Amino acid sequence: MRSTRIRCLQIALAVGLPASAGLAQCDETSFRAADGASHDGFGLAVALSGDTALVGAPGDDDAGSSSGAAYVFEWSGSEWIEQKKLAPGGLGLGDRFGAAVSLDAQTALVGAWGDDDAGIDSGAAYVFERTPSGWALVQKLVGRGGAAGDRFGAAVSVAGDVAVVGAFGDDDEAGAAHVFERTPSGWAQTAVLVASDRASFDRFGASLSAFGEAVLVGARFHSLGGAAYFFERRPSGWIEAQKLVASDAEVFDEFGAAVALASGRALIGAPRDSGVASLMGSAYVFERGPSAWVETAELSPCGGAADDRFGSSVALAGDLALVGAPFDDAPRLNSGSAWVFEQAGSGWVEKGNLVAVPGLEHDRLGCAVSISGDRALAGADGVDRGGATDSGGCSVFTVPGGHACNYCVSLPNSIFASGARILAAGSLSVADNEFELVVERAVPGQIGLFCYGPERGQTPFGDGFLCIGGGDIGLFRLFPPRRADDSGRLARTLDLTAPPAGSGDGRITAGSSWNFQLWYRDPLGVGGSGFNLSDGLAVTFCP
């Protein structure tokens, strides 16, 4: 099966430019720890199972600097309520409890790679179970033959009666993954997984995912480009069934930095992939065939840009894939985002870009992600709370939701070398009816006309490119024209109840996708046509 690259026509976003101007998400609920403090890093690790969320805060200082904590939140029907702060007795300085978390129904697994019981940073992991009276510690896990520097607990995953704990520092950072199984008397270690071609500094076990009787383990530095290894339990025990690598692997891609495993499907992040833009990142989908795993798609985001680190975190649920890009600059520098893709037929379709409101600089939304049903959870370990720097936060989104992203090319005009930029503002909710189009860097004092259509393109037109197409129904023009102010900015609120957006072929409804662009006058433009165009804006609306 041939791998396909999923992306739209695009250019890299210029650093510092927002992909929206105060754009409101359709369905987003944010929450933080009640006792959040500076550098807690709440949201650095997240897990979601039904109405329960588990969030790590490895920088929490209750038992000493960076001793760590984890929090359980429950959905009440209208908000996420903090139910329990997990911080077992015996935590100490630098344990980093909460650096990795996993949740499966009534069982929670929390890593503490800085635990020193078997030597400095040998690591540990803790199993909790939900009881009628709340969450209770069941067992502390340590790796067989644990030693200083193993960092056991840097990655964890629990699925049914199987728990897997990564120890990427094992054996000169070649790495290992430890398998535990639930027994009537507790959790017992049954295997230590290592790569058949392991080498120093591979960091095998820094990411992993368990599903059923199978485990996927990432080794982001293997052969410098990265790899992932699929293990499964056979009657004879756990075996390495296949090594997965990207079809277009390059040095320093860090393929395997994040992994997710579901029924017959694997999703693997490569956050330093530079195939489209330097360090923009990508994520690869593998499907299990009759005899082997096959790469079927490479995902990258519409409007992605250099240094987004898309693929830093990944999650799977059914036909949905969720990918974090914590250094995405939309709407602000390193504010971060997450992207939802859905399998449709033989390919994957981008469903939306999840961005927190307000989304501030260095929030790093998407540093960790999890998905359950139609909910997507994204951690943002850099969120500031009052005077508490990097205390952290989380956002839960309902998918699918609305999203907007830029594509196509905007060419220079007579005033601005970087050309005109179109943005979305207000709300993408049809019910709210507060959707606004904003353009920056048009020619001051000149008129512009907003247009939209069902298709995308990139056809030379005037001094720029026509980025929208009418297909079988044509383009829709939003009269009257608007005049740019002295800064080259102009805006238009689109009434979704009035023609053309409110009726006929141009009607905008929940779930529909349209492409917007501004045509504007430029009498002194270098091309001599007298007019130019902004780039394109692809928008999917939600209820």
Molecular structure report:
It is built from 1 helix and 41 strands. By secondary structure, the protein is mostly beta strands. It has a domain of 135 residues: Immunoglobulin-like (Sandwich), CATH 2.60.40. Strands 31, 34, 37, 39, 40 and 41 form a 6-stranded antiparallel β-sheet that branches. The chain is elongated, with a radius of gyration of 24 Å.
Summary?
With 543 residues, this protein is mainly β. It has one helix and 41 strands.
Give keywords.
543 residues; Immunoglobulin-like; 1% helix; mainly beta; 41 strands
Write the layout of secondary structure elements.
Elements: E1 4-6, E2 20-24, E3 28-31, E4 45-49, E5 52-57, E6 69-75, E7 80-86, E8 97-104, E9 107-112, E10 124-131, E11 134-141, E12 152-159, E13 162-167, H1 170-173, E14 176-183, E15 186-193, E16 207-211, E17 214-219, E18 227-234, E19 237-244, E20 258-262, E21 265-270, E22 282-288, E23 293-299, E24 313-317, E25 320-325, E26 337-344, E27 347-354, E28 365-372, E29 375-380, E30 393-398, E31 403-407, E32 421-427, E33 435-440, E34 447-453, E35 455-461, E36 464-469, E37 476-483, E38 490-493, E39 513-521, E40 531-533, E41 536-540
Parallel strand pairs: 1-23, 2-32
Antiparallel strand pairs: 3-30, 4-5, 5-6, 6-7, 8-9, 9-10, 10-11, 12-13, 13-14, 14-15, 16-17, 17-18, 18-19, 20-21, 21-22, 22-23, 24-25, 25-26, 26-27, 28-29, 29-30, 31-41, 32-33, 33-38, 34-37, 34-39, 35-36, 39-40, 39-41
